[in-house]
Specification:
The protein is built from 4 helices and 19 strands. The radius of gyration is 17 Å and the shape is globular. 10% of the residues lie in helices and 41% in strands.
Length: 253
């Protein structure tokens, strides 16, 4: 099932996209029971499909990405947080902050948690997974490099596009993850090349932080990272899952 959030005259509502591609309103809570209803008429503006309490991100989870910036491959998952205020949905603008001189998109497969979990064992990790979506870990690279912590460089408003939906039946084991900018291919990798797999990441994260329904784990980005400029359009695609596009807008525009 593909689960969405959409705008209904200024109110965010849950919905589903059925096998025929029809958008249907839905009642209930996706993490307990979501009941599809009538088709939604007219154009549907999709919102980010989750409202997490926390966004847990994994740095350098592809060896080639670590190498392209001259960084060592981590011996254990390198975890950082993005604030929920950084989330935007499909088609929404990513704002290029005036404080930064280099803005990079980072294409990522995103795990969505479906039930609470604390100290989850790797062998049990998939039992807390609700589904998968697509993310863009937008980064002010110069600020990330200048600060001892990554919070500022990763955490600006609009720096976490998510969407377009959550797919509850998706198999993430070996899929292509790409980023194009204005149609030009830049990043290109496959999830089989993760240094740390999804069960290992869930076990590692839940050892120090309770996972809640709707929380997301961004699994890392493949090689090919290059900067964007205002006016560019970034498109992250995960094979079999869909694509997420966002324009870049100058802060003073």
């Amino acid at each position: 099932m593909r689960i969405i959030r959409y705008d209904d005259a200024g109110t965010a509502r849950w919905g589903v996209i059925d096998a025929g591609g029809t958008v249907r309103a839905a009642a209930g809570d996706p993490y307990t029971e979501l009941v599809p209803g009538d088709p939604v008429g007219g154009d549907v503006r999709l919102l980010a499909p989750v409202t997490p309490s926390k966004i847990l991100c994994v740095g350098r989870n592809y060896a080639d990405h670590a190498a392209e910036f001259g960084n060592p491959v981590p011996k254990e998952p390198l975890i950082f947080l993005k604030p929920p205020s950084s989330i935007v949905g499909p088609g929404e603008a990513v704002v290029y902050p005036s404080l930064s001189g280099r803005l990079d998109p980072e294409a990522e497969l995103v795990v969505v948690i479906g039930r609470a979990g604390r100290r989850v064992k790797a062998e049990d990790a998939m039992s807390v997974v609700f589904g998968y979506t697509i993310g863009n870990d937008v980064t002010a690279r110069d600020i990330q490099k200048s600060d001892p912590q990554w919070t500022r460089g990763k955490g600006f408003d609009t720096f976490c596009p998510l969407g377009p939906w959550v797919d509850t039946q998706f198999d993430p084991s070996d899929v292509r993850v790409t980023c194009t900018v204005n149609g030009e291919l830049r990043q290109d990798g496959r999830t089989r090349d993760f240094i740390f797999g999804i069960p290992e990441l869930i076990a590692y994260v839940s050892a120090f932080s309770t996972l809640e329904p709707g929380d997301v784990i961004m699994t890392g980005t493949p090689p090919g990272v290059r900067p964007v400029q205002p006016g560019d359009t970034m498109t992250v695609t995960v094979e079999g899952l869909g694509e997420l596009s966002n324009p870049v807008l100058a802060e003073d525009a």
